[in-house]
Design a protein that fits this description.
four-stranded antiparallel beta sheet; 252 residues; six-stranded mixed beta sheet; mainly beta
Length: 252
């Protein structure tokens, strides 16, 4: 009842923008991706642009890895934040990243008023920001053929992603085999260092991709059916290798 009688321009109004979010992690250049499993720190600058200067309002800061309510909640304020209108407030939060996650990882930042009716504009209380997470060890991932199924007239591609803590300095060799469902090898090929391509942080078609026909035995014409593709990536100066598999269909 008290707030309902107050003019809107005397209420709190928290503002979050992309510039409100500042990431930090130790031991690595911020231009390089963070290694999954390492701790990360973020400072959120909440600016209260409301006209009321004399009162502190209670807020809850939530940080979600991914979408709110659907991702992983990595922070919720305890105790609540007391934010005064007309003043900026910096909140620094740290947590350990998920060692099993890699690639571009979006985060959602929300400032939620604890008492209803204290905000004149809730649309500017949230913002998203992303960081890049690299696997702690080199890995070959997201091997797939597109389009799938392959149809007449299409130009099929074999796509893959490489994650490595050395980033663009990664060197490796990838070997590819293609089999039919009876176990007969109908394709084979090798991609050397330069041809593998720099590790791509974004999953998707058109990144690290090569024409599938380049791996098929000369003169092979894929009959309708299901096929298995196996790729093995070896790392320069490392004995360790990583393998990925995928299936694809041909429909004529």
């Amino acid at each position: 009842a008290r707030f309902a009688a107050m003019p809107e321009d005397s209420l709190s109004d928290l503002l979050l923008t992309e510039e409100s979010i500042e990431w930090e992690w130790e031991g690595r250049d911020l231009n390089e991706p963070l290694v999954a499993g390492e701790p990360v720190s973020v400072t959120v600058r909440a600016v209260n642009i409301g006209a009321s200067m004399s009162e502190a309002f209670s807020y809850n800061l939530e940080i979600w890895e991914g979408q709110p309510e659907r991702g992983r909640l990595v922070h919720r304020s305890t105790p609540l934040l007391e934010l005064v209108s007309g003043q900026p407030t910096d909140i620094t939060v740290s947590w350990d990243t998920d060692p099993e996650t890699r690639g571009t990882l979006g985060h959602s930042f929300l400032l939620l008023p604890v008492t209803g009716g204290v905000e004149s504009d809730l649309t500017n209380n949230s913002v998203t920001s992303a960081i890049e997470l690299m696997s702690p060890a080199g890995v070959l991932d997201n091997l797939h053929v597109f389009p799938n199924p392959i149809t007449s007239g299409s130009d099929p591609m074999l796509a893959f992603d490489i994650f490595h803590p050395d980033g663009d300095n990664f060197k490796g060799t990838m070997e590819v085999w293609i089999f039919d469902l009876e176990g007969r090898q109908i394709g084979h090929g090798t991609l050397e260092n330069a041809h593998v391509g720099a590790p791509e942080m974004v999953t998707g078609e058109g990144r690290n991709s090569k024409p599938l026909n380049g791996f098929l035995t000369s003169g092979s014409d894929l009959a309708p059916g299901l096929y298995l593709c196996i790729a093995e990536l070896g790392f320069l100066d490392e004995e360790r290798r990583t393998t990925a598999r995928t299936k694809f269909a041909v429909a004529r």
